[in-house]
Structures are given as structure tokens and as C-alpha cells.
Design goal:
Two copies of one chain form a homodimer. By secondary structure, chain A is α+β, with helices and mostly antiparallel strands. The first copy, chain A, is built from 20 helices and eight strands. Chain A has two domains: 715 residues, no CATH class; 67 residues, Nuclear Transport Factor 2, Chain: A (Roll). Chain A starts with 7 loop residues before the first helix and ends with a helix. Chains A, B: Homodimer.
């Protein structure tokens, strides 16, 4: 029986998309400015679209290849259904759609923000944040719509829309994992490709423009300046959007998988008002309502004072953010109360079944919301302008680039301390509260406000672009001042957004990890087994090598850019005087090509290694359960190391960036005010150059790496014995209590455990416990034969 | 019964020490040069001793504190004997003794090498390597002497020198772990303190001397130059010596623990010519013979041609190294054949008992020797002069310090790829060959040539010092040219030595990890349990934070040095003209104080965290077995992350160093020969500044961090249930087969499993299997009561 509740998330998603559409119309209706501004903004728009088009063309081949591979798996593995291919393709398409939509609106909003900044700061914030809202709601709406929609379709296809058993639901969810895999695969390339693109353009533009030619940032004479602005959109908007789209879907999916196992632990079915699948629907419902509360949150983001500074703008964003988090917390309480049985049985590893009140699940969601908020604060502490760690880096700049770099590295490294302790605490607490279902719901609650988070995130690069357009169009200084305020806040939100993204990726991966273990049916991952330990090592190494590849890619792509800009400066007459027109398109093309070329190797590494770890041991005849543990060890290694390297790189990069920025307003070093252009500032610029690929390419890519690794594990799981494909197990456990008439008052308990193998042979273990005067005597007998034979023997044995 | 074999390692150790003494006498007999040289060398000698003295004074407090803590543990935990305190103190003293001895000879050899270089290069190599040999043999000799000696004493104390049971031997080895803990604790402070010392002096001397005052390296006018030269000895000689001393002892100990469990798996005792403890003696014997073969290896290190270049010197070192490795391989074959039963039973996790031929143990030792050699080659590839990765960093220097730093970081990160794959392969292969005993013996074989490795290692800083003395004494140019050749080879051996040290630390930690699991009696470490997973995260974070602390310490200490040097330049009249005498002692004191102050926090982190993880959950009432798993997860996290960060930091640092050095001979960048003093060279100097603390402070400290963490775990293990201290378990399993006389031919099997709790209550599970016509019927009954009551009931039940 279908419950109406199953459709609620879809309704929420549609409300979100409708609101998005209205907001989009409003943004597009805003004045897009005059000639020069429009021209530049069109260049950016076209450059961004050109990249997306080239990327999607390439990814089409990938999706086709992966689909064929998945179809092969579904052909070989009986429990993997061919529909997984359809789910995969839709996941990929939805993710691409979300990215496309977000990027289009971002590149339309930038020039409108510039134009709005000509009138007032409040209006500029309204427009830029409006663009961010469109992006956020688009991503969240499509994620919930796609996932819930597909779930309903699969639920009806495999189970006729009625609860039958955990095993059937597992098949539904395994197929649904295809949707998540599709989304995350696109995210990988969007994040890595986008990250390489943006930093290649940025570094290339700076090295020749600022350093060699001595022209300022965003100068229209620099051929790479358009590519640089395109990069902001490609990396920070589309990349971040795809990342959170993937997290969102994967988190909810993992929570659904674990909800399914809660039902199993409760005896295989529950009786509730939601067709017996309340624990499975809950994460979708939380996601759905999260969209609603994000909308309310976005409405609160506004300022009134035209003379407002960074603090007020940041305050407005914080208000909206905390409001949506608080509302989500309330909705979690209501939904948990409403949708979950008052008490549930949950299997705790090594401790057996425990009775858990539904309130503990609510507390777990609070843990998730808390982590999401606190991680952002920790990130802000280590990377924000004027904080102690950043000021320390500024001081170290006075003794040269070397000490600046050391200080930045150390800051990034130290920042793992509170971050990891918070993660570890969250894992421990949410598990202690409600098992791995609790961990998954903590992640779901945290992700519920994704729309709001993304709105805040996307607002940054839009403002950055708006400033660039103001500069390139040579608008009055106050316009740039206003956009600079927005841009500066955007830098902080970019850092905290990265904190949120890695926190979500970490919790998502844990939930996926838990789902993986339950899917494979292994009883844990024992790192005392040498092959498992070896894979833990290998897994730990992957994020490090991945980061190095991404960094090297940026270096190579930036060099390409440098050569092209140098060529244009030399060959185009009048370019430096502003009379010759630079060939912006050439630079955009170089960044595009380099990004697409360079994202292949990290992609292959990410996707290839887990497959290799599953396939190679199979070929040499390892036991499937051992392989499942090995792959689990690999996943754990990637997750632990990936989180560490993400936090390290993001925060080091953010800290260097703001250490450099500190010089703009001037800083006190050894009792002297020091400004831009000083030796200390030059040292800080070096640090920032190192930090650029850290914080915008390799660091954020870690999120996808760990999520995708765990998702691939989840898709491989059925092959490794999610269901026993050789024997069909039919378990009949009958417990009867009879009173033996012959002798004195005795109680007799009979339990029967029947198993039928694939070739029809039935094995039954029958145990009779007879209790006389409080002392129990057990008789056990095993019968093997056809079903009838065994039944007859059991009857005979019972009579004894 | 004692076997003579138990004394063989001691004899080998004494031979090694005797040879060392002779070599030492020979070195000291060499000409120590004239006035100025002697004066400078005396400064270095005194500075080094001053540091050691101050360090040992501080460490005395630590040893007293730790001894009291250990005594407390032995008081509370019945199975931990008070003798562990004695073992701990001796371990600490032996380690300090070895460091002291090595440093003394190194600081005496440096000036003699300078003097020898005035005559010829072969003679200079002979002297400098002679000093290294003294260091190597001293460390290895003391390690084997101390460990074996203590084992014999404890073996006689607890077991009267006769095999009784695995349990008794476990108590012997648990007590012996105190020796290892003592050695490793001293190593921690020696490594970290030495690392901070050497880099504070180096960076401080360079920043003011080279950069500000524009005087060359090792200029006697620089007040920090003596501290710099002292640092080479403190860090590279004493630190490395203590590190390998600790590895050596810990590896052999872990192998002995696992040998004890091999005997258990073989039924609790074996009958061999070695008093039934062949598998326990084997690792000691391999270590003992390793000393002998290291002596032979050192004899092969010589060159004849006075015009030899780096290649010939490196070739001579390689010949000696490979000869000792080859001889060790042969001795492993003979010893394994001789000392182990032809086939053994070993428990393989999840696979049960397996019959393993002793040859497979031999193959495992080959795996260890192979890894030791190959890791050095990999390190050389990523860090050597003229290799592809180093040349790539050189190229990137042309676009500035930022790109140079990025390239260096990426090189260090990428180098984890082959390294980790080799480790993972070694774990997998040696385990597949002979279980965790195989892993431990792989490590033992690798460590057997420690004396040779250390001789090669210590030769580097001795030659570096010799060059410094030549420079400061203004000797003829050809002297410096000769010492430069030795120094350059020394740089390569320093890098490969670090590769060896981390490989040994990794394998040692794995062996300790395996010993820990067997000590605690848990059946594995399941990272699917959330608290265990949380601790895996926390463990992974520790090496990152530790590295950051070490790097920051170097920064702080270097700043102290900078201020002092600046002060002297300003206040001492005539210092720049060479007429005023710098106060070298002040700089030595600053480095000493800073090193001792700054090593506290990383030390507390290393020692405190594992204790916290054991104690905190105890206080909130967690199950001991779960705590044991949590601590195991922490150990695994530290090991995996520590190995990664060690390889990353060591290799990045080494690569930067040699990228900078490449400019001395000139390099081709974009078709132009580029030399010292160019902008590209300046960028490379920045990279080297970043790499200095990486490769000499934080990177090498990782070795100790992971070993000490695992050792602390091992010492805590008995508290967490190595022996069940609450209930004394008495297992009586009697299987009788009787023929029931009453009915038709039936067979009856009776098994009894009796357990006695601490308060004397006996619980017996009795199972009777009756087989009639091939069908088995089982009756089980449980009886509880006093011993007599239960026995009576069993008799009654049997009669039924």
C-alpha cells in the first residue's frame, strides 16, 4: 500500500523548482547593463557554456562506456537488475542538468549584479544572492525530484508499491544506487575538470599579466582574463553544485538503505501509516522539507543600509543560514515523531539487538546539524581574515616565502585536529544514539539545507565576476567597492562552504560504508587480516596521489596558458595600448582543452582502483567475503586519508589566500605597517600561488573521491555476496511450546531451521529444549533430504 | 633446558662491540689536524655534548616519571610484573648510551676526515666511514646485547630457563617490551629534539648569514655556524641512531612475541634442539649474525683512486651494503633451516590452522630484504640529483618559488604511490607466506644489517662536518673538493637511509600491531564498529598534527636564533672583519634550549593520546575488548597515515634539496644554462627552506611516532585483557568414544567443557553425540555448581 507521504518530497521538490523558476525570471528581468558590460558578460557566458558543452560531449562517451559496463554486471550478477543502467544515466543527466542550470544563471546574474551595484549595495546583494538561490534550489530540487521519483518507480516495479521483504527492498535500493553513481561520476569530472580549469586560467593570467606585463587583475587587455572569470563559474559554481548534488543524493540513499535494515532488525516488517516503510521514507521527507526551509532562509537574506560593510552582509547570510538550520531541526523532530515507530530494534555490532526510542534518531539529526554548523566555524577560524592563524602566517611572511609556506602548511595540518575530533565525536555519538541509521540521518539532516548552503556558496563567484566586469568595463570606483564587499564575504563563504562540503562528504561516505557492509553481508571489516590491512594502506595512499595529479595538472595547464598569453602579447598589435583586441576565445579554448585532458588520469585512478581491488583477487580465486573486506578496507583508507587531505589542503589554501589579502588593508609586522607591494606581501603571494590548487582543485576533489569510491563499492557489493546467489535460503523458524503429557510438568520448546539449497536439498536443524525443574536439556538433530522426507522426520522427532 | 643458541646473539654482539672498539681506537689515532681545525672541531664536540647532557638531564625526569607510572600499572595489573620498570630503565639507558657513543665518535671523526682529505680522497673515505662504522656497530651491538641479555635474565627469572607454556613466555615478553619502550621513548625525544635543533640552527644561520649579511655557508664569522655543525650530529647521527636502535629492538621483540604464538599454534610446545623455543630465538639469531655480516660489509667499503668521483664512492658503499644483505640472506636460509621445525602449524585469521614449511619463513625474510633494498632505490629515484622528478622541479623553478613549491609537494605526494604499493605487497606476501610471524621476520631480516645502514648514514654528516671544518679553517680548495664529494654522496645516503628507516618502522609497527592483537586476545579489529572507526580517524590525524607541531617548533626556534645572530652582528665589534670573535656558545645554547622546550608538546601528544584512548572509555565503563579494538584502530590509523606523511615529507624535502643543489653545477632551463644566483635558483632555495623541516624534523619523526604508538599499545595490552584476570578458566575437554551396550551398534561421543570462575563456581557444558545408522543425535546439558557436584551430575548424565 502506498502512503501519501511517499509523494510529499516530490511535492516539496516541485515547490522548490517553481520558486526557483520565479526567482530566475526575476533575476533575468533585472537590468543587464550597457554595451561594454554586456559584451564582457556575454564572453563569460559563452566561455562557460563552451566548456560545459565540451565537457558533456566527452562525458557522453564516459556515460555510454560505464552504462555498457553496468549492463555487463547486471547480466552476470543475477541480483543486479538492468534498470540500474537507466538509473545511472538519469543520475548523470540530472547532475549535468543541475550544473548547466546553475552555471547559466550564475553567468547571467554577474552582470546584473554589477549593474545593481551602480544603484546600491542592498540591491546588489539581492541580485547576486538571488542568482545563488536559483542555483541552490535547482540543485536541491532536481536531486530530491530525481531520487524520490526513481525510488517510487522502482518500488512499484520490483514490489508493486507494497512492502514485501528487506531482500526485495534491497534490490530496489541497489538499483537506485545507479542514480547516485551517475550523479557522482559527473560530479567527479565537474569538480576535477572545473578545478583545473579555474586555476589554470587564474595562475596563467596572473603569471603573465600581473607579473610579466605588470597590468592589474581583470584588466581587459589580458587575453586570459575572460577565461579567469569563466573559471570562477566552472569551478566554484558548477563544480560545487555537482559536488553537493552528489552528496545530497548519496546521503539520502545511504540512509534509505540503513532504514531498510532497521525494518529487518524489527522482524522483517513494521506496521505503520506509511506502508511499512517509514524508516526508508524519513530521509527523503527530511530532504524535501529542507528545501522548503531553505526557501524561507533565503528570504531572510537582505540588508537595508547602503553603507553596510562585510560584517552586515555576512550577518544577513548567517541569519538566513541559521534560520533554515533551526527550522530543519524542528522539522526533524516532527518528522521523526510522526514517521518512525516509537521504539525500534536495531542491531548493534557485537552488542546484539537494542531497543531504541525514536527520539534518539532525532538526537542523531541534531548531531548532524551541529557538525555542519561547527565545522564551518572551525574553518572560519583557521582561514578567516584577521584570525590568529592567518595573522601568524602574515608575520612569517616577513622572513620570506619559505617561512610563509611553512606556516601555511602547518596551519592546514593543525586544522585537522579539531575537525577530525568533531568528526570522530559525531560518528561516535550518532552511532551510539541510533546505530548506523543514526549516522546516516545525521548526514541527511546536515544535507537538508543544501539549497541554502549552495545559495550562499554560489553568491561568492557571482560577486567575484561582478567585480571583474566592473573593472573591465571601467565603471566608477564605488561600484567596484560595493562588489568588493560582496566578493570579500564570498571568499569567507567559499572557505566555510568547503568545510560544509567535506563534512557532508565524510558523513555520506560513512553512511555509504555502513550500507556497503550490510549489502555485502559480511560481519565487519577486520583490519587484522593482512590483505585487508594492505588495502587500508593502498586506500590511504590514493587521495595523496590524486591530489598530486590534480596539482600537476594545474601546473601543466597553466603553462599552456602562459605560452598563449605571451604569444598574443607579442603578435597582436596594439594589445597593450588597448587598441588591439585580445583573442579571449583562444584562452578559453586552452583552459577547456587542458581541463578535459587532465581530468582523465585522476578519474581513471578513482574509478579504476576499487574495481581492480575487487577483480584481481577474484581472478586468483580469493574468497568473496575476504574480497569484500579488502574493498571495505580500501574504502576506509580512502575516506580517512581523504578527509585529512581535504581539510589540510582546503584550510591551508584558504589561510594563505587571506594572509595575502590582509596586505590590502595593511598589516602590522614587527611594529611596522606593511602594505601591498612590500617584500612580505610578495612572500604572501607565493604562498597564495601554492594554496590556489590546494583549495580550488585538489582539496575539494577529495570530497568526490571518497564518495565515489564508497559508491562504487556499493555497486560492486552485490557481486561480492550481497545475496547468496548459489543457494536460495528459506528459513523457517517455528517455536512451539508444548506440554508433554506423559511425564511430570515439563515445558518443551522446539525450534526448526530449514535451509533449501539451489538443487532442492533441504537441511533442517531441529532443537528441542526440555525444561524440567528449571534445568534445561537440549536435543538437536539434523535431517537432510527432500522437503517431504525432512518434514516427516521432524514430526517423528517431535513425538519422541 | 637452555640451548647454547640463546647465547650466540650475545657473542655476536660482543664481537661487534669489540670490532667497534678497535675501529674506534684506529679512528682516534688518526691525525686530528692543527690549531684552527682542532679549535673548531672542539667547539662542535663540546656543543654536541652540551646538548646531549642537557637532553639526558631532562630525560632523566621523564624516565623517572614513566617508571613510576609503569610501576603503578604493574601494581594494578596482576600480569604486569614490576621488572618491566627495570627493563624500561635499561632500555632508556642503553639507547642513550648508543646515542652518546655514536655522537662522540662522529664529532671526533669529522676533523680527522678533514685532515685525511689533505692527503687523499681514499683516506678521507676510510676515516669518515670508519667513524660511521663505529656508530653502526655500537648501536647494533648494544641493541642485541641488551635485548638478548634481558631476555635470558627474564627467561630464567620467570621460567627457570625452561619452556613451560605460551602464557608464561608471554609474561617474559611483556616484561621485555619495557626494554623496547624505554629505547623508543628516548628515541622520540632524540629524533624530535635533534630534528628541531639541527633545523633551527641551519635555518637561523642561513637567514641572517647568507641572506642578510651575505657571507657564505660555514663562514666562521657567523655565530650560528658551530650550532649548525653541531646540529648535523645531533639530528642526523644521534637522532637516526636512536631511531634505528628503537626499530631494531622493537622488531626483534615483535618477532619473538609472534614466535611464541607459533609454538602455541603447534600445540603449546615443540621439541627442538633449542629448548623448545627455536621460533623465539630465531629473530635474535638473525640479528646477531647480521652484525657479523655488517662487519664484513664495512670492510668492503673502500676506493683506491684519488681522482674518484661521487659515482665511485657511492659504488663502494653500495658494494658493502649489498654484500651484507646477500650474506644476511644466506644466513637467514641456514638459520631458518637449522632452528625451525621443518613444518609448523600457524593460525591464519579466518582460515584456521595451516601447515607451513619452514622454507616459507625463509621466503618471508627475502621479502623483507627485498623491500629494504627497493625502497632505497625508489627514494633515490624521487630525490636523487639528475633524476626526472628532481629535474622537473628545477624546470618549475623558472616560473618562481610558488611553482617550485607546488612541484616539490607534488613529487613528495606522488612518491607515496610506489612506496605504499611495495609496503602493501610486502605485507600481503610475507603474511601469505608465514602469517604475522612471516611479517615480523621480514622486518627482522631487513633490520639485520642495521649496523651497515647506520655506518652509511652516519658517514654523511661526518663528511658534511669535515667540509665545514675545512671551510672554517680556510684550508686549500682541493680539501673542500674532496670532502664535497663525500658530502654529496652523503646527501644521497641520507635520503635513502630515511627510506630504509621508514620501511623498517612500517614493518616493525605491523609486527607490533600483530603482537598487540595476540596479546589482548581480541579476535581482530573491526572497523565496522563505529567507535573503532572513529579512532581510526583520530589516529590518522595524529601524524599530521605532530608534523605541524614539529614544523612550527623549527620556525619558532629559528626565529630565536635569528635574533641572537643579529644581536651579535650588531654588538660584537669587528665581527664582520674577522677580528671580533663570535659567541658560538650562545647560539649552541639557544638551539639546545629551544629543541628541549619544543620537543615536549609532540612528545606529550604521542604518549598521551593512546593512554587517553585506553583510559577514557574505561572510565565510562566500556567493555575492555571494545577498548582494545578502539586502541587497535587508533594504532592502525597512526601507522597508515604516519607512513604516508613520512614518505611524503622525506621525499619532498630530499627532492627540493637536490633541485637546489642542481644549480651548483648549472642546469638547462628553457634552453639556457642557469646557475647559482639566478632567479630560478632563488626560487629553488625557497623550496629547500620549506623542505628542511620536512626532511629533517617532521618526516623522520613519523618513524618514532608510529613505533612508539604501537609499543605503548603493546604495554597497555595486558590491562585490556591479555589474560583474563577476573575469571580463571580451566578448560577440560574430554572426548570419549564409547559403545552403548544396550541398543544396537551405536557410537557415542562425549565432550565436556568445564569453566571455573574466580569465586570457584564451575560451569560444565556436556554434549553427547550419539550416532545411529549414520544419523547423529546430540544431547547437551549444562551443569552449574561446585566441582564435585558438577562431576557427579556429569557421571549421571553419561549413564543415561
Amino acid at each position: 500500500m502506498d502512503s501519501i507521504m511517499i509523494y510529499v518530497p516530490i511535492i516539496m521538490a516541485l515547490i522548490g523548482l517553481a520558486f526557483m523558476w520565479a526567482k530566475r525570471a526575476w533575476v533575468l528581468k533585472q537590468d543587464a547593463g550597457d554595451g561594454k558590460m554586456k559584451e564582457i558578460s556575454d564572453y563569460i557566458y559563452e566561455g562557460a557554456l563552451a566548456f560545459l558543452k565540451a565537457e558533456y560531449r566527452l562525458l557522453t562517451f564516459f556515460v555510454i562506456g560505464a552504462s555498457i559496463a553496468l549492463a555487463g554486471i547486471s547480466y552476470i550478477v543475477p541480483t543486479t537488475h538492468i534498470l540500474i543502467v537507466v538509473a545511472f544515466i538519469f543520475g548523470a543527466v540530472f547532475s549535468a542538468l543541475a550544473g548547466n542550470m546553475g552555471m547559466k544563471i550564475a553567468t547571467k546574474t554577474n552582470v546584473r549584479t554589477t549593474q545593481a551595484a551602480r544603484t546600491s549595495l542592498p540591491q546588489a546583494l539581492k541580485v547576486s544572492f538571488g542568482g545563488g538561490t536559483v542555483m541552490g534550489l535547482g540543485v536541491a530540487g532536481l536531486a530530491v525530484l530525481g531520487l524520490t521519483g526513481f525510488f517510487i518507480i522502482l518500488f512499484h516495479f520490483f514490489m508493486n508499491g507494497t512492502w514485501t521483504s528487506t531482500e526485495d527492498m534491497t534490490i530496489v535500493l541497489e538499483t537506485l544506487a545507479g542514480f547516485s553513481l551517475g550523479a557522482e561520476s559527473i560530479a567527479l569530472f565537474a569538480r576535477v575538470g572545473g578545478g583545473i580549469y579555474t586555476k589554470a586560467a587564474d595562475v596563467g593570467a596572473d603569471l603573465v599579466g600581473k607579473v610579466e606585463a605588470g597590468i592589474p587583475e581583470d584588466d581587459p587587455r589580458n587575453p586570459a582574463t575572460i577565461a579567469d572569470n569563466v573559471g570562477d563559474n566552472v569551478g566554484d559554481v558548477a563544480g560545487m553544485g555537482a559536488d553537493l548534488f552528489g552528496s545530497y543524493v548519496a546521503t539520502v540513499l545511504a540512509a534509505m538503505v540503513l532504514g531498510n535494515y532497521v525494518i529487518k532488525d524489527m522482524g522483517g516488517s513494521i506496521d505503520d501509516a506509511f506502508g511499512g516503510i517509514g524508516p526508508i521514507l524519513l530521509p527523503m521527507a527530511i530532504a524535501g522539507f529542507g528545501i522548503l526551509f531553505s526557501i524561507i532562509g533565503t528570504m531572510l537574506v537582505k540588508i537595508k543600509d547602503n553603507n553596510a560593510k562585510e560584517k552586515e552582509v555576512q550577518g544577513a547570510l548567517n541569519l538566513g543560514n541559521w534560520a533554515s538550520i533551526a527550522l530543519t531541526a524542528i522539522s526533524c523532530f516532527v518528522l521523526v515523531k510522526y514517521m518512525l515507530p516509537e521504539t525500534m530494534n536495531m542491531e548493534f555490532f557485537g552488542e546484539g539487538l537494542k531497543e531504541i526510542s525514536s527520539m534518539r534518531v532525532f538526537y542523531a539529526t541534531i548531531v548532524g546539524l551541529f557538525v555542519g554548523g561547527v565545522i564551518s566555524s572551525v574553518t572560519e577560524y583557521y582561514t578567516g581574515l584577521g584570525t590568529k592563524p592567518v595573522l601568524a602566517i602574515v608575520q612569517k611572511s616577513s622572513t620570506g616565502a619559505g617561512t610563509n609556506v611553512i606556516a601555511g602548511l602547518a596551519t592546514g595540518m593543525i586544522s585537522t585536529f579539531p575537525t577530525v575530533l568533531i568528526f570522530a565525536g559525531a560518528i561516535w555519538a550518532s552511532y551510539a544514539l541510533a546505530g548506523f541509521y543514526g549516522v546516516a540521518l545525521a548526514a541527511s539532516a546536515m544535507m537538508a539545507t543544501t539549497a541554502m548552503q549552495l545559495a550562499i556558496d554560489a553568491f561568492g563567484p557571482i560577486s567575484d565576476n561582478a567585480g571583474g566586469i566592473a573593472e573591465m568595463s571601467e565603471l566608477p570606483k564605488e561600484v567596484r567597492t560595493r562588489t568588493d564587499i560582496l566578493d570579500s564575504v564570498g571568499n569567507t563563504t567559499a572557505a566555510t562552504g568547503k568545510g560544509f562540503a567535506i563534512a557532508s562528504a565524510a558523513l555520506t561516505s560513512l553512511a555509504l560504508f555502513a550500507a556497503y557492509v550490510t549489502f555485502t553481508g559480511i560481519d565487519g571489516i577486520n583490519i587484522f587480516k593482512a590483505p585487508v590491512l594492505a588495502m587500508l594502506f593502498v586506500g590511504g595512499m590514493i587521495p595523496v596521489v590524486f591530489s598530486a595529479l590534480a596539482m600537476n595538472s594545474v601546473g601543466k595547464a597553466a603553462m599552456d596558458m602562459v605560452y598563449e598569453v605571451r604569444r598574443q602579447f607579442k603578435e597582436i598589435p596594439g594589445i597593450m595600448e588597448g587598441t588591439g583586441k585580445p583573442e579571449y576565445g583562444k584562452c578559453v579554448e586552452i583552459s577547456t582543452k587542458a581541463a578535459l585532458r587532465e581530468m582523465m588520469l585522476p578519474g581513471i585512478l578513482t574509478i579504476g582502483f576499487p574495481i581492480l581491488i575487487a577483480v584481481l583477487p577474484m581472478l586468483i580465486g580469493y574468497d568473496n567475503k575476504l574480497i569484500a573486506e579488502m574493498l571495505g578496507g580500501y574504502m576506509a583508507g580512502v575516506t580517512v586519508s581523504g578527509v585529512l587531505w581535504a581539510v589540510f589542503q582546503n584550510n591551508a589554501g584558504g589561510a594563505w589566500d587571506n594572509a595575502k589579502k590582509s596586505f590590502e588593508a595593511g598589516v602590522m609586522i614587527n611594529g611596522e605597517m606593511t602594505y601591498k607591494g612590500s617584500d612580505a606581501h610578495k612572500a604572501a603571494v607565493t604562498g597564495d600561488t601554492v594554496g590556489d590548487p590546494f583549495k580550488d582543485t585538489s582539496g575539494p576533489s577529495m570530497n568526490i573521491l571518497i564518495k565515489l569510491t564508497c559508491l562504487i563499492g556499493l555497486v560492486i557489493a552485490p557481486i561480492l555476496g550481497g545475496h547468496d546467489v548459489v543457494t536460495v535460503v528459506e528459513e523457517v523458524v517455528a517455536i512451539e511450546t508444548v506440554v508433554d503429557e506423559v511425564t511430570s510438568p515439563e515445558s518443551k520448546e522446539i525450534s526448526i531451521d530449514k535451509t533449501k539449497s539451489a538443487d532442492g536439498v533441504v537441511t533442517a536443524n531441529v532443537t528441542i529444549n526440555t525444561t524440567v525443574d528449571g534445568e534445561t536439556k537440549t536435543s538437536t538433530q539434523t535431517f537432510v533430504g527432500t522437503d517431504e522426507e525432512v518434514n516427516a522426520k521432524i514430526e517423528e522427532f517431535k513425538k519422541q
